[in-house]
Amino acid sequence: MTFKDTSTQGAAWGAVLAMSLCVAMLIASEFMPVSLLTPMAEGLGATTGQTGQAISISGLFAVTASLLITTVAGTLNRKGVLLGITALMLVSLVLVALAPNFTVLIIGRALLGLCIGGFWALATAVIMRLVPADDVPRALALMYGGQAIAAAFAAPLGSYLGGLFGWREVFWALVPIVALNLMWLAAALPSLPAEKRGDFGSLLAVLRRPYFARGLLAAVLSWGSAFMMFTYLRPFLEQVTQVDVTTLSVLLLVLGGAGFLGTWGSARLIGPRIAPLLKLPALVMGACTILLLFLGGSVVGTAILLAIWGAMNTAMSVIWMTWMSRNVDDAPEAGGSLMVAGVQASIMLGAVLGGLLLDGISIQAVLAGSVALAVAALALIGTGRGLLKPNQTTAS
Q1: pLDDT of amino acid 199
Q2: Which end of the chain has the lower number of beta carbons within 10 A, N or C?
Q3: Quick one: pLDDT at residue 291?
Q4: Phi, psi values for residue 76, rounded to 5°
Q5: 275 vs 156, 174, 186, 291, 392, CA distance in Å?
Q6: Domains in the chain, ordered, with CATH?
Q7: Where, by residue number, does the polypeptide cross the bilayer (predicted)?
């Protein structure tokens, strides 16, 4: 596979930065309900658990989009596809901000899910075309820096501004930023003609590879554990840590700010040996979640644990997508589609199971469920060597 088009020589890093901002907007849009869960539920006349399902709805449509995007997009230039996805994100934000009831909110979230699935399915393959192979981990870390930005500022600002002005105004504030991002992408992305038409056959061919199927399931469990805890973090902080809106915003800022450290560190941590790193996200984040069950009543203890959790959360994306880029480098769009479908399925898994546990048992049960998924991921990953393609095992 050719990792870099010769036509992108002068535009590559500008395009990566524009994609990083797009990532920030997607993440902010997708998980803003986490910081606004309680007021959104009150405003729409729904339970907190039901409103949490708005995240699972976007996940459902993201799974569908990630599996269909390469087939539906066919031979379309990937630049045009990414611009269309960003424009659709703009529409979804307007719908959510205007939503008079829960049904319209779900429609807006469904459109956002299509954006999320389509973008992420193509993102790693596009990055692999924008930079040389040796720079892919650094470019991925830069792109996922957008995730760190969103995690650092979207949730705490959403919580704080939502308390001052209302949750609808928070979503309106994202609209002009996405519009500017659309213009930047149009200017910075080079032409990216489709290399070949994707189909379900190519997806199945990649999925039949035992090492990839095993790794995909491990990634689903790892992300599922993370999202079960993260989706219902606000209720935990309100009920167990007993924080007010200001302290809540500070804690979310601590969690998100630590994401910059995770992004920076992952770019330097990843070398030729990826296998030993695959278990770190489930191990570290699972341990933090266990400790929250015992130390969650302390604001200081919670802040420290959320900082560690936040750093590993952003590192997890870089670690797993680097694994994908090295082990499915002959079919990056198919591999990316399956990875995104798996991650979005894990978001649904976390949001749905967490909502049921929250409404049916308690917030502590949500964290216990998160730990159980992390343990399952660790058992599947083992040393990580079984998740590598044959010619990678000697350099694991």
Answers
A1: 59
A2: N
A3: 93
A4: -65, 145
A5: 34, 38, 37, 26, 9
A6: 6-395 (1.20.1250.20)
A7: 12-34, 54-74, 81-100, 106-127, 139-158, 170-190, 211-233, 245-265, 335-357, 363-382
Rounded CA Rg of the chain: 20
Report residue 391 as tokens: 């010619």
Pick the more confident residue, 134 or 231: 231
Position 49 scores a pLDDT of 67
User: Is 312 exposed, middle or buried, given 0-12, 13-18 or 19+ CB atoms closer than 10 A?
Assistant: buried
> Is the sign of the CA dihedral 123, 124, 126, 127 positive or negative?
positive
